[in-house]
Amino acid sequence: MSQCKPYVIGIDMGGTNTEVAVVDTRGKITASATFKTCDCLEFEDFVLSVGKACRRVMGEVGGPQMITGVGIGAPNANFYTGNIENAANLPWKGVLPLGERLSDVLDLPVAVTNDANAAAIGEMTYGAARGLRDFIMITLGTGLGAGIVINGELVYGSDGYAGELGHVKIRRGGRKCGCGQNGCLETYCSASGVARTAVEFLNTRSDDSLLRQSDPSAITSKDVYEAAMKGDALAKEVFEFTGNLLGEALADFVCFSAPEAIILFGGLAQAGNLLFDPVKRSMEENLLPIWKDKVSLVSSSLKLSEAAVLGAAALGWKAK
Amino acid sequence: MSQCKPYVIGIDMGGTNTEVAVVDTRGKITASATFKTCDCLEFEDFVLSVGKACRRVMGEVGGPQMITGVGIGAPNANFYTGNIENAANLPWKGVLPLGERLSDVLDLPVAVTNDANAAAIGEMTYGAARGLRDFIMITLGTGLGAGIVINGELVYGSDGYAGELGHVKIRRGGRKCGCGQNGCLETYCSASGVARTAVEFLNTRSDDSLLRQSDPSAITSKDVYEAAMKGDALAKEVFEFTGNLLGEALADFVCFSAPEAIILFGGLAQAGNLLFDPVKRSMEENLLPIWKDKVSLVSSSLKLSEAAVLGAAALGWKAK
Fold it and tell me: Predicted ipTM?
């Protein structure tokens, strides 16, 4: 029955914006709407805003009777429980029953997953990972997230939290992480990690850099990227340093699941060869001989803004 | 058809001994035979010896018509190809077509996997992991191997080599590993790693130890264990050190697949609390808050000699 309905709704919930889209069976976005997540004072306001946006986009394709299901990717969301659990980047705290409330409000089947997993599903369904059965998608945003696919299936683990690769320790006793531990991968290999490295370099070195014109507390990974593109040596070294650590970590991840490819995604991945060259070199240097030159390192082929919403939509086909 | 035959053959191929057993549907070993792997000068001699041993044990249950299939766990064996590929601990080099040759000689379906995966399947089918859908089995022998189970299925990865957790880097630039890299987990956390740590401690410290009575080049993990059981402080510290590193590594592995349990198996795991206490403490210290006190650390419940042969047998039911 429900499989015959020609559309799904994909929702990408971010800390700042939430995007809602109606997607057809071929992955085409037919209608979409966006609203500010942070304008919703209470979680319940957010639920009502999602409901409103969904009704608007469904209206453009003939209403709810045309929709098979709804998929939503959200920070710290759990596939098994449908809850958002203690998300650091959302204004509402505690455990939020996202799946249950959306399913009440929309009267449609809803499937929930976290944002990194949604992006991995998007990439597998419509992007660079089409046809791959074993890959790891690394999302390099403010933090570092991962979606791990083994044998064509996303890995959720026993509790829905598998793929927290941002919290693998890459430097024992290293940088303090928001999780309370030290040396976590995301304290180095993420947009905020790049900014942190730049500030460390500026503070501990005396060589010239375009970045010295900026207030250190305001430096972003974008500033570092722009300086590096202008040939700034210090900024280029920041990317070398970041890529080196990420390559080391990726070689360890390969030991785990022997993927055919690793896909880098997110704002920082757009730095292109500045990041990819050192990551690739460092990964190859650290791989066991059996894997040398065998694991592709590729960039996401989806638009940054579309991967998560398309992945969430792909999940919507399976919502129950 | 074939599912009706009441027995399988499980084969555990080690560098020293090979054990062949007929196993019934309930995991009971009905007949078994052992021969010395290292007595076989050529790989083809080994194939013929396996054939002979299989015919002997099959004879005790009514012959090959009673056998559904054959499973074999072997060092560096690949589930997908059925080949042994460049095994360091076997007398024959290169790529050995184990599955193909055994299937020729026995005229039965044969399934091949590596020894750590066979042990994980044994544990899942008959041991401490019965009923678990997400666990990691760590085998602590001469090296460190792993069998990773996600959603009730063993992870082979894109090429059959998933689970090479002995080669995750636990100390960048650390001990030289047989694989050509430095700082691999198995250079610290394995029987040989324990012996290496003991020798390092003896060489760099001056405190008394029972181990000083031994020739340093001949110290084994068993010597360290026995000294520790007699209260030797240095030997106990060797286990603390080993457990500490292993706990750090396990906390990283949890980030990957969020298992409900980690099972330690193999000679070194028999050191009991000497090893388990520091591993557990270190793992808990390094876990993300969401996993604290949630991941069981357990000892294999199978006899050392039986896990691999039972796991291989369990694989035999699915041989095609």
Answer: 0.93
